[in-house]
């Protein structure tokens, strides 16, 4: 039996599910699922990910989605945002990138899936 | 230094692959587009090379709220991997945009002719006359070119088939050097030839103390012997020279089409650990698409 074009091409969609695993001294590690909302990272209580460490700026960095990509941007922090040990101003994230902010590390995990819509 | 001059240069990699584009899942992290780097300083926009990476840069520029109107494109040379994206660079088709293109005058053929022939109808459906932007093509001859607060120095590199040009961008006390498509191994290793000492000295003086050196590192040390005289450098040689010249950050560039993300990750791990632990340390990393550094 030949599959219909509809079932081959439209029943399934490709999606990028992504999350962050956060390891911050003084906190137990936790996961934050990326849903397209901007994630702010910093010492401020207002931030999506609050990192209450002394060498972290009040509003240190943010992660935003642009089309299919997640992009981290340093917000002119004093001590820098590092991706895989490189100090970045901005960086498109890839699976298993290690983000370092002060003494905290955040691992970016992306799962590209093709599943039934 | 004026306040304007004290602000940072932002260096974005749009294409890092050498020789030919390499799309596919094994190259998506470091990227498959051929050389293109955009460096901005306040309003000044300088593009280094027009490999296939320039297509995405053009898309971002036309989508931007503040479309840059004055662009400066410096070509290292006119091998395909460094100019092939130009016909797909949307701002070139946009009226009201000014693009100044710079390249070596030592081509034998005029630079304008080389770029026009790439868009001959046998190779591409529209000719260069379809560019609606105001385009000037400049064969560089003055020692340094001043663009806004950015001073651009340049030097010919003869150890690459047909030659290439390296560029140094200076703002205040910050320096970014772009030196790709050069075979440093032929200058710095083995028995030095008559000219090698002069070439080595020129190279060392040019890159010395750079905050960022973007350098040809296409081959591993093991690969190089079978690729000698192909016009590209080996990673152990370029990293050692960079370290001796007090480079703060070395971006290894012009990745070999055969090198997968896994392989570049392994090289990053090995060289990163080595140079990070030295006194003083040097940061070394493999340039990847979509990465912006503030210098
Ligand atoms: Zn090349
Ligand atoms: Zn070349």
Amount of beta strand of chain B: 25-35%
Oligomer: heterodimer
Total number of helices of chain B:
8
Bound molecules: zinc ion
Unreliable spans of chain A are: none
Largest protein interface, residues of each chain: A-B, 14 and 15 residues
Which structural category fits the helices and strands of chain A? mainly beta
Notes on the structure:
- The complex is a heterodimer of chains A (117) and B (295).
- Chain A has 117 residues and is mainly β.
- The mean pLDDT of chain A is 92.
- By secondary structure, chain B is of the alpha/beta class.
- Chain B has eight helices and 14 strands.
- In chain B, helix 4 links the parallel strand 5 and strand 6.
- The two termini of chain B are 16 Å apart.
- Chains A and B meet through strand 6, strand 8 and strand 9 of A and helix 8 and strand 14 of B.
- The site of one zinc ion (ZN) has 4 residues of chain B, from loops.
How would you sum up this structure in a few lines?
By secondary structure, chain A is mainly beta. Chain A has one helix spanning 5-9; strands at 12-23, 30-34, 39-42, 49-50, 61-66, 69-74, 81-83, 86-88, 90-92, 97-101, 104-116.
Topology diagram in text:
The complex is a heterodimer of chains A (117) and B (295).
Chain A: H1 5-9, E1 12-23, E2 30-34, E3 39-42, E4 49-50, E5 61-66, E6 69-74, E7 81-83, E8 86-88, E9 90-92, E10 97-101, E11 104-116
Parallel strand pairs in A: 3-4
Antiparallel strand pairs in A: 1-2, 1-11, 3-5, 5-6, 6-9, 7-8, 7-10, 10-11
Chain B: H1 3-6, E1 10-15, E2 36-41, E3 44-48, H2 53-63, E4 70-74, H3 80-83, E5 98-103, H4 111-118, E6 134-139, E7 144-147, E8 150-157, E9 164-171, E10 174-179, H5 184-188, H6 196-207, E11 212-216, H7 235-244, E12 249-253, H8 261-276, E13 283-286, E14 291-294
Parallel strand pairs in B: 3-4, 4-5, 5-6, 10-11, 11-12, 12-13
Antiparallel strand pairs in B: 1-2, 1-14, 2-3, 7-8, 8-9, 9-10
One zinc ion binds next to loops of chain B.
